[in-house]
Amino acid sequence: MVVLTANYLCKTGMGDAVEKALREMIPLVEQEKGCLHYLINRSKDNPDAFLLFEQYEDEQALARHSETPYFKRIVLDTVIPMLEKRERTLYTPVQD
Which domain of life does the protein's organism represent (predicted)? Predict the structure, then answer.
């Protein structure tokens, strides 16, 4: 199992547009084989900050996710240009 967290800091005032794009991703990703959890969270303190929590069966499932046409269109082409900063971290759960 692999967990990915992504912290997005939007360019000022872009939070609503980023949220709209990320909401489009939710039903698409939830249908992916190997996706266990896909949670998008928006900061209560900063409307331009997001935390994504993603859990996949294995690294191959995560790699497949990153190759989907909708990931490329929504995340790479739409969301990332609206970000000031994007930090991604991979984790392996400690417990089985």
Answer: Bacteria
